[in-house]
Amino acid sequence: MDYSKKKILVTGGTGSFGNFIVRRFLDLGAAEVRVFSRDEKKQHDMRVFYRGRKDLSFFIGDVRDRNSLDEAMSGIDIVFHAAALKQVPACENFPDEAILTNVTGAQNVVDAALHHHPETVVMISTDK
Q: Do the Cβ atoms of 25 and 50 come closer than 8 Å?
């Protein structure tokens, strides 16, 4: 696929998988890759690592917040949803937080995609 005209949103773009897929799409020549996450420090570290690339942008937000998703998803062609709480002990100790992120957050991504009509949405999951 030719990604040179594709705008891609990666939720959880500062996480382990998200960071990998961001780099892959940049290497494939995507027109724009948007990193969406709530971790400002990791976003800063990525900005420093990529040294101001024009094809990379950052959105502070949380999949729990539909409004921040709508802003980040506007004009996007492809969505990779990788935002999640994946550490089993954290999810066991804070089940309400896990549900808000992993269930409500995933539903918010679906709802935002239905509103914005990207051509492709990929929802990944860990084994957790």
A: no
Buried b (16+ CB within 10 A) or exposed e, 10-38: bbbbbbebbbebbeebbeeebebbbbbbb
Does residue 127 register a pLDDT over 70? no
- For a pLDDT cut of 90, what percent of the chain falls above it? 93
Whether 28 and 80 have beta carbons less than 8 Å apart is answered as: no
Instruction: Give the residue numbers annotated as catalytic, written as ranges.
Output: 128
pLDDT tens track for 50-86: 998 999 999 999 999 999 999 999 999 999 999 999 8
Distance CA 121, CA 96 (A): 26
Residue 77 DSSP code:
S
Nearest-angstrom CA–CA distance, 1 and 40: 31
For residue 11, what are the β-bridge partners? 36, 81
